[in-house]
Amino acid sequence: MTGAPSARTPERRTQRARDPQARRAALAVATMEVIAEAGVGRTTHRAVAARAGLPLGATTYYFPTLDDLIAAGLRHATDQLRADLDDWAQRLAAAPDLAAELTELTREYLADRRQVRIEYELCVAAARDAALRPIAETWMDGLPEILAPAAGADAARDICALLDGIILRALVMESELDAPGLTAAIRRLLTNAG
Amino acid sequence: MTGAPSARTPERRTQRARDPQARRAALAVATMEVIAEAGVGRTTHRAVAARAGLPLGATTYYFPTLDDLIAAGLRHATDQLRADLDDWAQRLAAAPDLAAELTELTREYLADRRQVRIEYELCVAAARDAALRPIAETWMDGLPEILAPAAGADAARDICALLDGIILRALVMESELDAPGLTAAIRRLLTNAG
DNA sequence: ATCGTACTTGTACAAACGTACAAGTTGAGC
DNA sequence: GCTCAACTTGTACGTTTGTACAAGTACGAT
């Protein structure tokens, strides 16, 4: 009733194949998903283990405490976003219209609400727990760094703040993005200060 | 060892004075504080009761389920902010420089991080739990409504998004507000579209 | 082949949880 | 004064929690 050894592996009640690195990763991914669905505060060892299809003991073997597990999940989420950001950088560099392209990227980003929710989970968690701040900072600085060369440091920061606010609103309201309005707003912020 | 009846009230192990309305309010306030410190996901009946100085049973008497209790805390927080917004409206109406005044108000708002944290807790909670969305919407629409007459609906929404993003950043980074930079950004967004 | 370390896994346990409830207390209406 | 509904409170119960751990398995080094 417990493990149901398959007919393929006749009689020995096997342990699974060993691959510690893959387990760490699987746990981090599962943690990410649980955070997205239940929130940081309701993330538990057991929920993560079930999601990863691993026994409870595996979670504490690789991540001694719950905080470690959650940090690993959040870090994995930001690593994933960092990778997406490289894509953003390329597309923005090649785009004839920076504001329009940025709007389009935002629209695509908003398509996967689960991913977006994790970022904001990370923010409020970092606002409360200083240990998570480095992870949050790495994430928050990503886009401004990409935008700064083309837009200047100040405009880059302002545009990022605008996007964060717009995304937050869309997330809470479950509303569609007002693309033309956003493009226009970005253009205004791109206006040189001098 | 349990209640320690004071020497003042000699022998009867008294119940406290009855004031249901005050109890509801005290519980809502205590819930708000617990949410600000621990987050929605780690808010418990016992933590709220302890914070309010009331017995555990009082929480379930006034708020049958934990969700009710949390909703009451969040609603109380937004009610409080609505009251602050009236103040904002008056000051903005009287201000000679809208952008500068808005910056100053933001600076003052950021002084109480605990309050700010609750708003963002509400946002991520509402993003996950649709039952909280009306509360979140009431809050999110507050400032745009105030700004719209003076700035136009579009600029009002953009400025609010900008402020939300700036505030989020300051919250996560624990950094100071760049007041001149914010004022300049607001001015750009105030530029008429036509 | 064997040995030891690294990994796996099921189970155990005390603490904390949401919620239920019985017994007690109060004060307004009669 | 008596009554009854509203309120108060301590305690209890079954779950779920974080974490610990013993017993077992696999695999590189020897």
UniProtKB/TrEMBL annotation, chains A, B:
Residues 1-22 are annotated as: Disordered. GO terms for molecular function: DNA-binding transcription factor activity; transcription cis-regulatory region binding. InterPro entries: Homeodomain-like_sf (IPR009057), HTH-type_TetR-like_transc_reg (IPR050109), HTH_TetR (IPR001647), Tet_transcr_reg_TetR-rel_C_sf (IPR036271), TetR_C_31 (IPR041583). Keywords: DNA-binding. Signal peptide: none annotated. Residues 21-81 form the HTH tetR-type domain. Residues 9-22 have a biased composition (Basic and acidic residues). Pfam families: TetR_C_31, TetR_N. Residues 44-63 bind DNA. The keyword Ribonucleoprotein does not apply. The keyword DNA-binding applies. This is DNA-binding transcriptional regulator. It comes from Actinoplanes cyaneus.
